[in-house]
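Sample pair:
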Amino acid sequence: MNTVTQTMLYRQALINYANKKGVTKAAIRYKTNRQYIYRWLKRYDGTLQSLADKSHRPHHHPNEHTAEELKLIADMRKRNMNAGLVVFWVKLRQRGYTRSVTGLYRILRRQGQMAVKPPNPKYVAKPYEQMQFPGQRVQIDVKFVPEVCMVGDVKGKKFYQYTAIDEYSRFRYLEAFEEHSTYSSAIFLEHLIKKFPFKIQCVQTDNGSEFTKSLGNTEKPTPTLFEARLKQCGINHKLIKPYTPRHNGKVERSHRKDNEYFYATHTFYSFEDFKKQLAVHSRKYNNFPMRPLNWKSPADYLFSFLSNGEVF
């Protein structure tokens, strides 16, 4: 939308008076100089818009980029399309560019030469291997009990929750420990074998030192007590990819639920108190319906499978 200002109307009246009475009389009448009238007479084409002010922005600046610098930027951008602002600026400085990084930013924005960021490669998860029967694979992990749950004489101490979850039925076994070591892991494994009502074929853990020495400094690590006990029982040991806890997703998710429904609302006055409360929480978990199990509890889902006559 074209805007008509008072200045434009003033100039039109000045030009009309000059055309009738002459430039000199118009300059006296409107208290201006002759050069001003001649300039607007030359620009006037019969429309008010021709009397509007043009941009006062200068056409040139004494510190503007030279043609050589603009060519250097354009040539470098062709070879470094994905380079970010700072990286691109450093590369230009290595070739004699002396402008600031903010000055380079304005030029790149003005000429549409900002970096073209390539899309990040999408993570494609491998299809999950569905378990066919209980004990086919059991995930084991250790959870550090939050310090805020410790009160009284045990405040400042460390308790640990060892967790084993059957991938097929989601049936869990929890046990409390005061020590986080391969000895505790071996003891937990012995108790787990006795508690689970089915034979365990494979155990999956992360690469923690309480399970394995695979990430140690030695080239040929010796088996830990936990690994030795697994071998003695004829149970396969599967290690997940280092620093990838999502591969142990079922036990990790169950630990998140423990935080929400157990540790967020419970406190412990002694280790025995922690063991008793953890046992109650474990029974509740195994008897609570779950959507992945068609709204059956892990205990009911496991019982339904075992009642079909399968022997493990």
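Residues 67-110 form one domain.
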